[in-house]
Specification:
Blueprint lengths: L6 E6 L20 E2 L3 E2 L2 H9 L4 E6 L4 H10 L9 E6 L13 H12 L6 E6 L2 E3 L3 H10 L4 E8 L1 H4 L3 E5 L5 E6 L3 H5 L12 H6 L2 E11 H10 L6 H12 L2 E5 L4 E3 L3 H10 L27 E3 L2 E7 L4 E3 L2 E7 L4 E2 L4 E3 L2 E2 L8 H9 L6 E2 L4 E3 L1 E3 L4 E2 L4 E2 L8 E2 L6 E3 L2 E4 L4 E2 L6
Parallel strand pairs: 1-4, 1-6, 4-5, 8-12, 14-16, 15-17, 16-18, 17-19, 17-20, 19-22, 20-23, 21-24, 22-25, 23-28, 24-29
Antiparallel strand pairs: 2-3, 6-11, 7-13, 8-11, 9-10, 26-27, 27-28
C-alpha cells in the first residue's frame, strides 16, 4: 500500500507568538528568520517535501505579508503535481468570531478546507521546531500498527520531562496513559524503560521518559469523530490525546535524534548559535534531506580585512574590517570598520540601499541599514532592516534580564538584547 496517497500535512504556525516577541511584533511566527537565510516554516515544510508529502497547509493566527511572500515565492510545485503549500489564517466568521483557541480548535476550524482532498492520514506538525525527520517512517508505523492516532515521542531526561506531555505505553507500544506537564510524584509515575524503544541501557537510564513532540498522525475519519465528540476541547495535548487513549488505538513512534522547540527567545537564540559551532547538533549541510528556502539570486558575500571565526555568513553581505565570533551574519548585511560582534544573530536585510540613499540618509543623521563603524554588539539578536549607527554599544553590561525601550527600538528578554525589525539606533547609543 502506498502510504503517501491521500496524506495531507497541517503545520500549526503557533499563536500570537508572544514567547518570541518582539521578533513576532510585525510578522507571524512561521516567518521568523532562522540561520541567516531561512525562516522557521522552512523546516517542517522541507521535512514534508523530503518525505514525499506535498499537500501542506500552514495555519497561522494572523496573516503576515512576509509569510505569504515567502511561501508563494519558495514553494511552487510543477503544474503536473498535486502539491501545494497553502496558508490558512484564523478566519473571523459569523459563527466563530474569535482566534484559534488552541491546536485542536485550529484544526477543527479548517476542516471544511480539507474535505475535498479525500484525506486518509492527516499529519499534524508544529511550526517552531528545529529537527530533521522522515515522516515516511512515522506513517509506516501508523499503518503497520493499524493505529487511529500515532504520537511522535522523544526520550527525555527528568529535568526536561516536566515541561512536556508525557506518556506510557504497554508492551505493544500502544499508549495507555498521558499526562500534561506532571510534577513531583506524578512525574515519577511516568517513568518508562526506554530500552524497549531501542535505546541502549545507559541512554535509557539518562532518559527514562517519553515526551510528546506535539507531532501526530491521525486517521482522518477518527479525528473527525474525536473533534465532534469532544466539541469543547481546544488542545490536542491537554484534551484530545487523553480522550483518544481510552477509546482508540493510539500508538507511540520514537524519534531519537536532535529536536529542539525554538518557541522562546532563549531557545531560539541558543539553537541559532549552536549552528555556528564546529560540530552543530543540527546540520544544514545534509544533502540527502536539504532545508529549502527562497532562492534570491544574491551575489556572494564580500569580505575585506575581517577577523571572523565560528560564524555563518549569508550571501549578499558586504563586510568591511569587522570582527565576529560565534555569530550569524544574515543576508545582505552591511557591516563597517571596527565593528565587533560576539554571540549574536544579525538577521540582515530584505533590500539594498543605493549609495545615493545612504548619502542622503547620512545628511539627515540617519544610519545606513546595517551596522556603523566601531559599534560593539554582544549577546544580541538584531532583526531585519535595522539601522545601527557608529560607536553604539549593545552590551547589557548591567546584566538586565528584561527591558522595553519606550520607543520600542530595543528590548531585553532573558538577558538577550533584541533590536526589532526596522528599528533605528542612533550613533553613540549605549544599552
Amino acid at each position: 500500500m502506498d502510504h503517501h496517497k491521500n496524506v495531507v500535512a497541517v503545520i500549526l504556525g503557533g499563536g500570537a507568538g508572544s514567547r518570541l516577541f518582539p521578533l513576532t511584533r510585525e510578522r507571524s511566527k512561521p516567518a521568523v528568520p532562522l540561520a541567516g537565510k531561512y525562516r522557521l516554516i522552512d523546516v517542517p515544510v522541507s521535512n514534508c517535501i523530503n518525505s514525499n508529502i506535498t499537500q501542506i497547509f500552514v495555519l497561522t493566527q494572523y496573516n503576515s505579508a512576509s509569510l505569504n511572500r515567502h511561501i508563494s515565492q519558495t514553494y511552487r510545485f510543477s503544474t503536473f503535481s498535486s502539491g501545494f503549500v497553502e496558508i490558512l489564517a484564523a478566519e473571523q466568521r459569523q459563527d466563530s468570531p474569535e482566534w484559534f483557541q488552541g491546536t485542536a480548535d485550529a484544526v477543527r476550524k479548517i476542516m471544511p478546507h480539507l474535505r475535498e482532498w479525500r484525506v486518509k492520514s492527516l499529519v499534524i506538525l508544529s511550526g517552531d521546531h528545529l529537527y530533521r525527520m522522515d515522516y515516511r517512517a512515522f506513517l509506516k508505523k501508523h499503518h503497520e500498527t493499524n493505529a487511529d492516532l500515532t504520537v511522535s515521542v522523544i526520550p527525555a531526561t527528568p529535568a526536561d520531562a516536566e515541561s512536556f506531555g508525557l506518556l506510557k505505553t504497554d508492551e505493544s507500544g500502544r499508549i495507555v496513559q498521558f499526562r500534561e506537564k506532571p510534577k513531583g510524584d506524578a512525574l515519577e509515575e511516568m517513568r518508562v524503560d526506554t530500552t524497549r524503544f531501542g535505546l541502549d541501557a545507559s541512554s535509557a537510564e539518562k532518559r527514562p521518559f517519553l515526551a510528546s513532540m506535539g507531532i501526530y498522525v491521525f486517521n482522518y475519519e477518527k479525528l473527525v469523530e474525536l473533534l465532534n465528540r469532544n466539541e469543547d476541547a481546544v488542545d490536542f495535548g491537554g484534551e484530545i490525546i487523553p480522550a483518544a487513549i481510552n477509546e482508540y488505538n493510539v500508538q507511540a513512534h520514537l524519534f531519537n535524534d536532535y529536536w529542539e522547540d525554538i518557541g522562546t527567545i532563549r531557545a531560539f537564540y541558543e539553537a541559532n548559535l549552536d549552528l555556528v559551532s564546529p560540530l552543530p547538533k543540527f546540520n544544514f549541510f545534509n544533502t540527502d534531506a536539504p532545508i529549502y528556502s527562497r532562492s534570491r539570486y544574491l551575489p556572494p558575500s564580500k569580505v575585506h580585512e575581517c577577523d571572523i571565526d565560528n560564524a555563518m555568513v549569508s550571501e549578499g553581505s558586504i563586510l568591511n574590517g569587522m570582527y565576529a565570533r560565534n555569530s550569524i551574519i544574515g543576508l545582505r548585511s552591511r557591516i563597517d570598520k571596527g565593528v565587533k560582534i560576539e554571540n549574536s544573530i544579525i538577521m540582515g536585510s530584505d533590500f539594498y540601499e543605493s549609495i545615493e540613499e545612504i548619502g542622503a540618509n547620512l545628511e539627515r543623521g540617519m544610519p545606513h541599514i546595517g551596522i556603523g563603524q566601531n559599534t560593539v554588539i554582544k549577546q544580541a539578536i538584531i532583526d531585519k532592516n535595522v539601522r545601527i549607527g557608529s560607536n553604539v554599544r549593545l552590551l547589557n553590561e548591567m546584566g538586565t534580564k528584561t527591558f522595553d525601550a519606550e520607543d520600542g527600538s530595543v528590548y531585553i528578554r532573558d538577558g538577550i538584547i533584541i533590536v526589532p525589525k526596522n528599528s533605528v539606533i542612533k550613533d553613540g547609543t549605549v544599552i
